[in-house]
Structures are given as structure tokens and as C-alpha cells.
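Dear colleagues,

As part of the handover before I leave the project, I'm documenting each prediction I ran so the next person doesn't have to rerun anything. This entry is a single chain, and its sequence is reproduced below.
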Amino acid sequence: MLIICLLLLAANFLFAGVLPASENHIIGGRRIEIKEAPWQVSLRLDGNHICSGSIYSKRIIITAAHCLNFGNGTEYRIDHLSVGVGSTARSNGTVFKVQAKMSHPKFENGSPPNDIALLRLEKPLMMSDSVQPIPLVKKVPAAGSIATATGWGVAGFHTDMSFIVPEYLQGISLEVLSLEYCENYYEDPVAKSSICAKPGICDGDSGGPLVVDLELAGVVAASSDYCDGPSISSSVFYLKDWILEAVNALDQ
């Protein structure tokens, strides 16, 4: 079964202008307030939400590498990207321009391994109850661990299979599974630098946080075609060395 990068289908519908507004929940999830996940941000292209991300520091945002290109490897221009913070509503929040971006050098478009990128904001964030960084995980979450994912991704499908997209932030609890579970489900190898979890996450949630014990354990990367299978996230623990090197490079 094919694994898809979550953003790509969402972006195609977004630019076609057929993403319907809705207050329905993320698939299997519930509405939450931004203060429950103050590290959550909305990554925007020309002002439209395309992906999620996590606050690492006042100037650095962690997201997925595939969120930064059209799907054919051509990257979005930096002056078209911005980040919205501090709001439960997808279309609100304080907006910050992106000054610089860096994707993992081993990321290959359309493939989950190494699907991680960092953004440097033009101006520093003002921290508050609704805007807070999240620490990086200190160990690989074991199978059976409970994780939390948040975002404004697809909450379901209309009868014509167009997306139901929530205006308000959604949260869901997931169970971390063995990598073998995802390999068996997708009948495809899964990189060691990944986290397998279920239930699935959906289009528009890409780049968002997979949180275990209030630490950033993963960056949401991919799921099944109709979001009914397990999701795959990039493992922050395995990619931590690159993250710290990239932070230093962007902060120069």
C-alpha cells in the first residue's frame, strides 16, 4: 500500500479553492485550546495554512521538509512563507515572516525518511501562555507509549471525497507501535529514523508535533491515502544531531 506525504494532496485541493471550512474534529480527535499545545504553529503559503510546526526557540520552528516544496522538488520561495502562532483558530494568530529555511540534506521528496526542516523567523517570538517552545525528546519512545498529535489537518471527507478541514485546533492521542507494524501494513521498509503510530493523522497535519511526555518525539510525515492507516513521523531522537547543527547554522 502506498504511503503518501500528507501535505501534497492538501496543497492541490487548497490551490484549487475547494477546501471546505468546517468545525468537525480531526479524525478521531477533539477540539483543544492553543494553551494545551502552545508550541503548535501554522505554516502558511501566501497566507493559507498548508502544514503545522513546533516552536523550538524564539526564532526556530521545526516542521517537515516536504512542507517546503510543491511536491516535485521545487521549493517555495521564502518570501511566500509565514508562520502563525498563539491561536486556536487556524486563520488567526500573530504572523511572523520566515527569514531562512533548511531541510535535511538526505530528504528525498515523496519519501518519509529524514522528512524534517527548520525555519528561522524574521523576528523573535514573544513567549506567553499560548506561545511556548517544546523540548526535544531524550529517548526513543517505546512501543505502547501514548503520544499526542495536534493540528488543523483534514477531519474527514464529504460524500464527494472533498476534505472537511477544521477552523479550530484539534488534538488526538495515539499509540506508538513497532516499526514492524508499519512495515507489515504498508508492505514496505520503514526507516529506523521513523516512529509508527496509530490512529492515523491526515492531510494538513504534516510537520506537526508528535509529543510524548511533553517532549517533541516526532515530526508528522506521512499516512495512508485516506488517513485510515498508521502514521509515520520523523524521529526527533534519531535526527537530534542534525537538528542541533541546523539550529547553530541558522542562528549564525
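The first helix runs from residue 6 to 16. Residues 1-27 have pLDDT under 50 and may be disordered.

All the best with the project,
I.
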